[in-house]
Amino acid sequence: MTPFVNRHIGPTARDVDAMVRRVGHDSLDAMMRAAVPAGIRTAGEVDLDAVGTSEQDTLLGLRELAAQNVPGVAMIGLGYHPTVTPPVIRRNVLEDPSWYTAYTPYQPEISQGRLEALLNYQTMVGDLTGLPTANSSLLDEGTAAAEAMTLIRRAVRGRDDAPVVVDEGLHPQTIAVIATRAEALGIDLVMADLRDGLPVQDCGGAIIAYPRSDGAVTDPRDVIEATHAAGGLAVVVADPLALVLLASPGSLGADVAVGSSQRFGVPMFYGGPHAGYMAVRAGLERHLPGRLVGVSVDGAGRPAYRLALQTREQHIRREKATSNICTAQVLLAVTASMYAVYHGAEGLRQIAEHTHARAARLADGLSAGGIDLVSAEFFDTVVARVPGRADQVVAAARRAGVHLRLVDADHVGVTTAETTTDADLESVWSAFGVPGAPASGASRLPETLLRTDRILTHPVFSDHRSETQMLRYLKKLSDRDYALDRGMIPLGSCTMKLNATAEMEPISYPGFADLHPFVPAEDARGYITLIDRLESWLASVTGYAGVSIQPNAGSQGELAGLLAIRAYHRSRGDVGRTVCLIPSSAHGTNAASAVMAGMSVVVVRSTDDGEVDLDDLRAQCEKHADDLAAIMVTYPSTHGVYEHGITELCEVVHAHGGQVYVDGANLNALVGHARPGEFGGDVSHLNLHKTFCIPHGGGGPGVGPVAVAAHLLPFLPSHPLHPDPERREGIGAISAAPFGSAGILPIPYAYIEMMGADGLTEATSVAVLSANYVAARLRDAYPVLYTGAGGLVAHECILDLRGLTKSAGLTIDDVAKRLIDYGFHAPTMSFPVPGTLMIEPTESEDLAELDRFCDAMLAIRAEIDQLVAGDLDPDDNVLVNAPHTARELLEWSHPYSVADGVFPAGSTDDKYWPPVGRIDQAYGDRNLTCSCPPIEAFSES
């Protein structure tokens, strides 16, 4: 194995020996043989051409791949634009582990920095769109528009049969994603050029381009009014930079606005990751998909941020969820929000005016040269008519290092950006064969649609003008959070492991960061080679025939896999197979994804020991023999055990005509030891942000590729603008870009190459060992709820605190918040079983950190025992008051000592201090505030 393997895996060889003995086995291999059922163990080694290279050689290879890409000057448009990421933001957000290794802010007391940044994002979006409530990001513009379509279905009650009108002026990839979702859900779409008005008298809603993909800026008010008259909701898809100069969708009467915030400082990344946005008018807040940051108060009455409303309800609602909770791009939303903080309203106006002035000057030069333009009024995109010679123009520009959009044989599109220079315009004029006569660059925006109201008026967008102020603001926010750079995040179900710097570094290489997703294939050779290899490696690891990297989140991978199953059945004439069986222990996302794929959810019971009840499974399969489409099963189970009945489960479902979807969320317990494609799976999604080291970024980005058996290969995601013509037709686009979040694929590529097959197998073994070590140390204090063969768990374990907390008059929250005082992020609370903690230590935590966590849990157990014995005040004790803040030291009034409260056993001088106390969730829902509160709110408290 390479030295990198020993860097990635925390415990040393000596530590592993000690841990194995504590678990009750003679060797690591013996423990894995006992844990993994013999019937699913892989027959041979993982076949990878990555043999485990050094960090230096891996980085050299990635530099060579990046050099094979030709970013040039990207003037293609279509929703992707060159932008300048201010270096202070690039270095201190995108490249800073205190931001990119954080987890989703479900524990708000230790996520205040990230939550403030996201609230800034929501405020920015709300200001630009003129709508009061925005969510904290979606995956991209295409999926945001599709989410808006499903919002229409939810919000317009009793109108399920009413069509949704879609503007032909939307970007083609946005239309493609909408169409994929609509087909699965049975939503009737009416395509129309909405410049000609609404084509129907009755509709559920309309999705309107503003500006259009061809650049034209047209007044949407008549269509909005007609949509309302038809009983529907009006959705406007808008470019946020254009909205700096143009009237907001809200002021024009829109109900919903969606789009992408990519051009606010986020590199193009060959298509992603980028933060989509959505904002809604008053009354539609509870229909918002994804996550919503709100303002509440802590125990001292101070303002504090937390996830609001339906954000916390999505998993609970399962098949009734309004969306999949995983649809977010937090790290990119933070970057976009900080771009607005850095530039402020005046800076954004200068950037927007520069972008528009370059487009206007470009148009003047083309017109002076006799070139006919499609639109007279536009923001940043000019489409020129060049009958029969569009290919020649695009080719000439490419020879000059400029990428233009080939619209068709007669039209060429050119889009300007904040980076566009006069030299770029000269190159474009030359490609068109015109001299580029002196041009005025006078505004081409319609006078009736100019923005007149102020934006970004909150002080946060004007207080950080200097580099020093901006640097300190970013540092202040990151210090308020807890991420992997501080310590262990022992969450079950979401693997939080090392995201090595060598894996992260290549995403900043210009050849990877600055490439437009729709450049010709020959200018993306490095990316295409990387993606082909990565897809091949993932297929080998999982035992499947093929992989598509397009889904840009685990939620999207789930949807893609289910759509593949649906398409397969339909190709065989089995259109009635629409039932999806889901075990009661499954991730809540599974049920939500099944509904989004047009399936009906039927729950299969679990046995008392946490496994799928095979008797109930047989009964449900018999009952649904004619309409069974699939089962979604997580393996190892969500209860943290290797179920011995998995092969029988697959056989039963197959015997009744169904397909087996193996949720890859827990693949970190399988790699190198078992392959889902070999033990009965037909399709799986993989979480590259878990098993394969893409960092969680505070709740996104992620990548959820879908892996399928040979018979499902024809039903992998397609894309109308895919560089491979053979992959342009199929079941449809899942994400806006052909390869989804391609910009972060160098991370798992580097991880797999540096680990090699043996290293990946070792990582799995140590991850399982670490979970069993924690279980062995804690089981006498906290019952381990589920175990498999020989009393072993898989890569995570569930501690049952229900009896303890009940006897002490506590809640599971009290234990979770007390862990903060000991310097830890809490494990997963009350999932999949209420009143429990799910712990997943991963292979990356060393033995000292594992022991520190176990010591903290044992100390908390002693505190619980004191409370039960009556030695602590039941209403004023270290548990119910946790977490304790530094501010409390000023007016300490508790019956226990300061040492017991804030420096419990095991604390160090490097103690993490939460910036707020226990947050009142109910208060925040009763008093919904989802944009930046005034500064006075903090000073008054």
Automatic annotation (TrEMBL):
GO molecular function: glycine binding; glycine dehydrogenase (decarboxylating) activity; pyridoxal phosphate binding
Domain Glycine cleavage system P-protein N-terminal residue range list: 6-432, 461-713
Domain Glycine dehydrogenase C-terminal positions: 763-884
Gene Ontology biological process terms, A to Z: glycine decarboxylation via glycine cleavage system
Binding partners and assembly: The glycine cleavage system is composed of four proteins: P, T, L and H.
NCBIfam families (UniProt xref): gcvP, PRK04366.1
This protein's name: Glycine dehydrogenase (decarboxylating)
Organism encoding this protein: Aeromicrobium marinum DSM 15272
Encoding gene (name): gcvP
